[in-house]
Write a structure and sequence with these properties.
Shape: globular
Order of helices and strands: HHEHEEHEHEHEEHEHEEHHHH
Radius of gyration: 24 Å
Strand content: 15-25%
Strand order of the largest sheet: 1-2-3-4-5-7-6
Number of strands: 10
Largest sheet: 7 strands, mixed, barrel
Distance between the termini: 12 Å
Number of helices: 12
Helix content: 25-40%
Structural class: alpha+beta
């Protein structure tokens, strides 16, 4: 059964490879039949983006000529997209989202439709830029329990060109749950954890903080102005990593990349988050690279001990009773990798703590900064030696699925 499962996860990689082998055998057979003429072939990925790229190259090259691949090029693979300009700066952006807010609040189903929306901001020249977009609700707990639901935006390539929304795809917008300073603080705390994750690994989402104004398109009324942040579109992230999203659940330790898995599991322990499952794709994503590596990526940290929202509680099946307690939920198969990753966390400690002293970290109340760093201090106290980390963290590891 394990072999069948692994073959199913790798099937998207195996099928193109088999097709290429068969095509190569056919080409060489034709060359031999024609008296040994040299035949050169360029493999095709089968993707629309690769086909379009090929069409453009054919138009610019002279008839009968073939362009050799540049050093490092991978023939037939899609072009890795550039990072959206939205995420090339960390400066908070004043943004106005205008849409039918009354309708958004009514949408409580996973199948909720997109609604017309606009996104407006002022660029560096002082000009107001308005981008046509669409917005729909998303999420699970916050969708059911918050005054304002979490949102997914969709910006067409044409609409986003020459703006900060160029190549942004369908990012998540982490919104305020309730219009109060406490919930503003929760948004900022979760935003900071995404930044911590980025310090530890590039296999993580870029984020951008907004001071977002929410305007109702039906009434013209301003509903609220609160902190929110955009989370990089998973599909864009996967493409940037040279891979694709894995939609299938059931990934086991044997399927996952050991080094990245160790970082993700130890990070979740550091921030006190147990509300995730890489196997179940709950608050987690998997990216399959062109080399066959399956990279786990964590997201959604509002139920973590580091944020400590008043509404967060651990799953009743766990031994912990509050989110401020920690429980390690990593696979035992990565024990060797965990020990190596501890050195990474130690090396990045100063850089992580510095985030809470920079202009974005200073948006948090000083008390919250002190509490957060004290919570991280507890983690670093547990990993002072290999023996400490093994006894206090990794001995509690989980067997594979």
């Amino acid at each position: 059964m394990m072999l069948v499962h692994r073959l199913r996860l790798l099937r998207p990689l195996l099928l193109p490879a088999i097709s290429c082998l068969l095509a190569s055998a056919t080409i060489h057979g034709v060359a031999a039949a024609q008296g040994g003429d040299t035949v050169r072939a360029t493999g095709k990925s089968g993707s629309k983006s690769a086909d379009k790229t090929g069409d453009k190259k054919e138009k610019t090259e002279k008839k009968g000529e073939q362009k050799s691949p540049e050093p490092g090029d991978s023939v037939g693979e899609p072009k890795i997209p550039k990072l959206s300009p939205m995420f090339t700066s960390e400066a908070p952006l004043a943004l106005t989202l205008t849409t039918n807010i009354k309708q958004l609040r009514r949408d409580k189903l996973a199948t909720a439709p997109y609604h017309a929306a606009t996104l407006s901001y002022t660029d560096s020249s002082g000009k107001v830029v308005t981008v046509e977009a669409r917005a729909r609700t998303r999420g699970i707990w916050r969708l059911k329990n918050c005054e304002f639901p979490p949102v997914r935006l969709k910006v067409a390539d044409k609409a986003g060109k020459q703006t900060l929304f160029n190549n942004i795809g369908e990012p998540k917008l982490v919104t305020y749950c309730r219009s109060s300073d406490v919930y503003d603080q929760y948004v900022l705390q979760e935003f900071m954890l995404y930044r911590v994750y980025r310090v530890l690994t590039p296999v993580s989402h870029h984020v951008r903080l907004f001071k977002a104004t929410y305007a109702d398109s039906a009434t013209g009324k301003i509903e609220a102005t609160r902190y929110s942040f955009a989370v990089e579109d998973p599909a864009v992230l996967a493409a940037r990593l040279g891979g694709e999203m894995v939609k299938q659940t059931g990934a086991d330790a044997d399927d996952l990349d050991p080094a990245q898995s160790a970082i993700a599991f130890v990070f979740q322990y550091m921030i006190g988050n147990t509300d995730f499952s890489f196997a179940g794709l709950h608050n987690a994503e998997l990216v399959r690279t062109s080399q066959g590596r399956i990279l786990p990526i964590a997201y959604d940290f509002d139920f973590s001990g580091a944020v400590n929202t008043h509404y967060a509680a651990p799953d009743a099946r766990l031994r912990i009773r509050t989110v401020r307690e920690r429980q390690f939920r990593g696979y035992c198969a990565f024990k060797t990798d965990y020990q190596q990753v501890i050195d990474l966390f130690k090396a990045k400690k100063a850089e992580i703590y510095a985030l809470y002293a920079d202009p974005l970290g200073q948006l948090l109340p000083p008390r919250v900064v002190r509490e957060t760093l004290a919570y991280f201090d507890e983690f670093y106290g547990q990993i002072q030696t290999v023996k400490d980390a093994q006894k206090r963290i990794f001995d509690e590891c989980m067997a594979s699925n």
